[in-house]
Amino acid sequence: MSAQPPSTTADLTTDQSEQADRWSLVVAAGLLSFVAMLDMNVVNLALTDISAGLHVSPGVAQWAVLGYQLPLVALLLPAGRWLDQVGTRSALLLAVGCFAGCSVLAALAPWAGWLIAARLLQGAFGAVLFVLMPVLAATSVRPELRGRAMSVPATLGPLGAVTGPVVGGLLLDHLGWRAVFLVKLPVCLAAVLIVRRDAPRRGGLRPPDRRSLGDATLIGAAVAAVLLALTLAPRAPQWLLLALPAVPLALLWLRRPGGRPVAEVLRAAGTAGVNASVLALAAGFAACQYLLVQHLRGPLGESATTTALTMLAFPLGMVLAGRLGGRLADRWGARPTALTGAAVTTVGLALLVPVGADWSAPGIAARLAVAGAGMGLNGGPTQALVMSASPPAKLATAGSTVQLARSLGFALGPALATAAALAGDRATTGTRSGIALAAAVAATAVLLLALHRRPQTAAAAPVSAPPEEVHP
User: Fold this and answer.
1) What is the DSSP letter of 422?
2) What is the DSSP letter of 18?
3) Distance between CA atoms of residues 431 and 421, nearest Å
4) Which of 92, 107, 254, 442 can bridge 178 by disulfide, Cβ–Cβ 3.0-4.6 Å?
5) 89-106: per-residue pLDDT in tens?
6) What DSSP character marks residue 19?
7) In angstroms, what CA-CA distances link 284 with 413, 442, 454?
8) Amino acid 460: pLDDT
9) For residue 175, what are the CA distances in angstroms to 10, 57, 127?
10) Which of 56-65, 160-169, 327-336, 454-463 shows the lowest mean pLDDT across its residues?
């Protein structure tokens, strides 16, 4: 009998017909998704306090956020390729432990260089978590229950992104900016305990090969160029020229061994359009969120507490619809459910376009709840659509493409909103222009999902007969 290399996703998928569904691991995936997305937003409110506390300029303090986002986005695809070759349990415990350790290092930072270095490391381990979360959820239950399982991390992730500013504000008011980095530790500990207890012991760890490191350098440089250009462009449009090197760097990466498997997975599964729809919805949501916060605090003159409560309508709608989205995907189909969710989100954003100074906070919250419900319906089914259509041995690679699309959307959204808002001659007009662009971007997700057709050659995971009753 020949030895077989460790293949985490393939082994787990093969054994699903013989094992009970591990919903505790799905919960762990949801907790980690919440924490990872919360970390992308919770630090934003603390930048002024970090600048004052560490005696640095606001521009230097901003790298507490960029230092996390750059490696996170840049390493998603190389991390997916590496994770297809190692054990899920070992990789997850390593990533969660190091992610939490970097949080402690950031909280203890005596100067800015220390803080930025800790955030760069945290972003690298965050990339591993982002790829592992959908894989953990998808492989912990039988294939016919994936829609329901995927809705857990797909709902809790954006929930963490939206509630990040609220949590950050409370911590800053009562405990200071260092507490912002420590809020994640209890959740990380809970996830570690669940994984240690319930995750099967399969496969070990191996260091990434040199080619993977070279691929990571290329795609990292390309993503860094784009994000830096978008970050600096509001000061002067000439900074957009920084994004030009991203094209040749990306083309060079696609010709290398690291890029070819990603292209092959997208081609075999036919999910390039689905990933593009994820990016579009994330960008539209992030743009609208950014503009509404500015509008509530500016023209409407609302307090930080009122603004936070108003914005919570979005995640509340998402949470309420998220579980329904998973059940509908399992019964009705992933694509129709994802398409319906994208359409509902677009309608919710479109209802916000006429926003004006005479609008009340509850009126804005009601429309946000509609958009959030659409995102809840869309998130889990979209993940299930990608994972089910992908080859079983390449689930981590497929999952990394989804996470990259969503992360890029969250990063691009505020930049698009700022550019559109500057087109207006007054604050309210600019806000309307930005939200209109956000709704138009979300509408492209509807079109992309409507045009999606799964190739006949797609290698999907086998589907076993469901039991009489399931208790998630």
Assistant:
1) T
2) T
3) 5
4) 107
5) 788 888 888 999 999 999
6) S
7) 6, 5, 25
8) 42
9) 45, 22, 28
10) 454-463
CATH architecture of the domain covering 270-455: Up-down Bundle (1.20)
**C-beta atoms surrounding 113 within 10 Å:** 13
Which one-letter amino acid corresponds to residue 11? D
- DSSP letter (8 states) at residue 46: G
φ/ψ region of 301 (left if φ > 0, alpha if ψ in -120 to 50, else beta) reads left
Show the beta-strand stretches assigned E in 132-275: none
pLDDT, position 346: 94
Tokens for 284? 């539209």
How many whole angstroms separate alpha carbon 77 and alpha carbon 92?
A: 16
Please return the burial class of 255, using the count of CB atoms within 10 Å of its CB with bins 0-12, 13-18 and 19+: exposed
* 256-282 pLDDT, tens digit each: 766 776 777 777 667 778 888 999 998
Q: Which amino acid is at 197?
A: R
CA dihedral (182, 184, 186, 188) in degrees, to 10, reads -130
Mean pLDDT of 105-117: 91
- Spell out a b/e string for 379-390, using b for 16 or more CB atoms within 10 Å of the CB, else e: bbbbbbbbbbbb
Mean confidence (pLDDT) of the chain: 76
Quote the CA–CA distance of 452 and 339 in Å, as a whole number.
Answer: 10
Question: What's the CA gap between 43 and 412, in Å, rounded?
Answer: 18
Q: How many CB atoms lie within 10 A of CB 216?
A: 24
Q: Could you tell me the residue ranges of all domains in the chain?
A: 21-205, 209-257, 270-455
The whole-angstrom separation of Cα 350 and Cα 221 is 36
pLDDT tens, position by position, 335-362: 889 899 999 999 999 999 888 777 888 8
Contact by Cβ (8 Å): 212, 81:
yes
For residues 303 and 297, give the distance between their C-alpha atoms in angstroms, rounded to a whole number: 7
**Most confidently predicted of 85-89, 106-110, 258-262, 404-408:** 106-110
Please give the Cα distance from 408 to 161 (Å, whole number): 14
- Whole-number pLDDT of residue 2: 38
Q: Name the nearest CA neighbour of 122 among 93, 102, 147.
A: 102
* CATH no. of 21-205: 1.20.1250.20
| Residues of the chain above pLDDT 70, percent | 76
User: Has this prediction a pTM greater than 0.90?
Assistant: no
Locate 290 and state its tokens.
């950014």
Residue 160 has a pLDDT of 76
Residue type for 266, please?
Answer: L
